[in-house]
Structures are given as structure tokens and as C-alpha cells.
Model the fold of this input.
Amino acid sequence: MISNGSILVAEDHESARESLVELLRGEGFEVHDAADGTTAISLIDKLDLDLVLTDLMMPGADGIAVMKHVRDVSPQTLVMIMSAHATVETAIEAIRLGAQDYLLKPLLFAEVLRKVRHLMAHRKLAWENQLLRREVNDHFSPDRPLGRSAAMQEIVTMIRKVAPTPTTVLISGESGVGKEVVARAIHNGSLAKDNVFLPVNCSAIPENLLESQLFGHMKGSFTGAVGSQEGLFQRARGGTIFLDEIGEMPLSLQPKLLRVLEEKTVLPVGATTPIKVNVRILAASNRDLKSEVEVGRFREDLYYRLNVFEIDIPPLRKRLDDLPGLVEHLIHRHNAEMKTSYKGVDSATMRILMSLPWKGNIRELDNVLERAMILGDGEWIKPADLPGQQNGVDEFGAEDNLTRAVELYEKTHIERTLGKAAGDKIRAAELLGLSLSTLYRKLEKLGIND
Done:
């Protein structure tokens, strides 16, 4: 069962506390309770909470102290104060110090539920808006087809079986084959489909920032940590986190990921107490992780925890039956983005596309079609619109020149992407779907200067 959110009720009157717990659990919330402020503060350190509902006057620590602690260790958690001794001044002070709302005693349960629902909806919407901004330029669309080939239909069957389970899935395959598309399909078929799907490219985040990004950090834990920050495992609560390029994760961080998989807890940077998390993990790699284990670049225990269920996506050159459908889908998508009205590719162009090695797989096909649609006349994509064809030299059709044609296109595309990223190689590698080390090797091989 997927929880509607996690709430802590801090209330020293036993009957009032038990009534609130029963009320909120009845609405599908995961509810924890504390009989005093000291216990509440201890639980805040250990739990991954969406909302703290705290009495103003309690033994041990009052509601203001509880709220200040929330602000220090988990600023994304919302706080609502309850009090039978309310004045305008205390209400204003509570809001000024960071409370999102205020409840007067004796409590009216209808009002409690209305305010709790409003705050939880606000929190969910704020987080989803952040994710939406992250994905504005995402090239993967939700309706992207997985393919009609026998190999892809077998993968569709595997997705259908594993999606409703909480099982960790490892998705393997070359760069550009559509590993994130498969991960999204698993999420969309899961019990958490209405919650967040959070993709994280482990190779795109600098090593010195990756730990804080994934696991969070406490205020003052390092230079520049002016406040506490939730990690992505906490922010994906109740949903799915997709760890792309997992083979690029530094060995020093792999034990912390193993803890998440085994114990469902994270340890933020600077914290001493683990925090419970509720998130499904999907991972992907274009490397052979078993070989990485053998040479000591990846932990064996982590590999087996990730590889509970593996989906290996074959490269496009081994499933060319999927190419016509992918071409149709990609042209349709680019028509919408570029305000064009291409009907498709002509038969000669399709023969050329079917003959290519597609080392960059679907991502490379997408780039070739986008470029052809810019160069073409707006109706049918023709051979002359493809890279290397403009001067009547059939580089794609001439077998001896095929490798050179692919290299020329690859060089042009990488140079253009570097320009788009303003020379930032980390950002360029993310856009290209490559690891940073792979990008540097290609820059050297293709003779691309800074």
C-alpha cells in the first residue's frame, strides 16, 4: 500500500494524541506519535517526514523548539502548530518562525483534515513542479514506443510482470538504446505510478556533490552547507528513483547505496542517525557491471543487490524491425517541436537507415532525423538530407566510406553539443548520454579541441 504521506503527531495529552493518530491513519497517512517535545525531536532526526503536527505547550521541549529543530534538520518538512492558549501574537510568531499553519483547540476533526490535506497537496505540487522544470528539455516522451521486434516484445512482457512488484531492477544496454524509457514504463505500471519518477544521471553530477545530492546533508556539515537539505532518495518518497550510469558511482559511495537497498535508510552527510526512506530503486548501466566487479571498480554485494531482476536491451542494429516505427514516432515528435509537417522518409532513405550500424542507437537515429528535417524541404526526408549526402557523394551508401561518414557526423554532433553546453563538458556528456570519461576519449579520438 502506498502511503499518502508521513506525519508526526506531537501531543502530550494521550486521548487527543490517540484520536489524531487514528483519524490520520484512517485517511491513509503513515503516522508516528510522540508524547513530549524531546521524543518528537528524536523522531524527527530518524524519520523521513512530510508534516509535523505539534502542540505548542509540551514537557521536554515546546512546539516552537520542535519547529526550530525541523527547520534545522529537515527544512522541506512542513509544520502545523496546535494550541489551546492561542493569541494573535503566538500565531504570528509561529508563522514567522516557519510554521505553515495553526490549529486552535479544542480541535475540529473536519478542520484538521482540511488543513492537513491542503498542506500535503501543496508539498506534493511544489516537488512535482521542481521535477517538471528538470524535465522540460527531456528528449524522452512518455508515449515513446518500446518496439515491435520479438526482442522488445519479450522485454514488454518482463516489464509487465516486474512493474507491480517492489523489486529492484537493473537495466543494461548500450548508450542510447532507451534504458530510461524502459524505467519509465516500469514506474508507470507500478503501484507508485501516481507518485514521482526521479531520474538521476550518476555520471553527470561531480563526485564531490553526488553524496549530498543523493543522501542529503545536515546544516554545517561542509563549507557552504548553510542549511540542511533533503537528498533525492528522500524527495522521491513513495515513488521511483532511476539511477542511470550506476557504474560511474564512486566506490566510496557504494556502501551508502547498499544501505538504502538493504535497510531502506539513508545517512545524510554530517548526520549520525539514519533516516527511513520509502522509494523503489531502478538502475541502469552501459557497462558490464560483472566485469567491473572482477576488476575491483564495483562492489560485488551491491551488484547482486541491484541485479535482482535484469532487463538487457539489445542495440538497435540487432532489432532493425523496430526502426521504421521509431522513425515514424521521432518524426511525429519533431514535427510538433519544430512546427514542421514531414510525412516520413522515402523508400531510398529507409534503405540507407536500415543499412547503418547505429553505434549511438536510438539517440543517434533521433539526431540524424532532426538534422535531416532541418535540411529537407518539409515533406519527405530524402537521401540528400542525410549527413554526407548533400554534395551528391553517397557516403552512407558506399561501404568503404561508412565508418568515416559516421565519424564525421559524430564529430559534428559533439562539437554542436559542446557549443550548446557553453564548453561545459559535464553538461555536454549528460546531453550526449555519455560518461565524462567516454566523452574525453571521443574528444581525443576525433581531434576536437577545447
Q: What stands out?
A: The two ends are 52 Å apart (CA to CA). The mean pLDDT is 84. The chain is about 45% helix and 15% strand. Residues 4 and 121 are 10 Å apart (CA to CA).
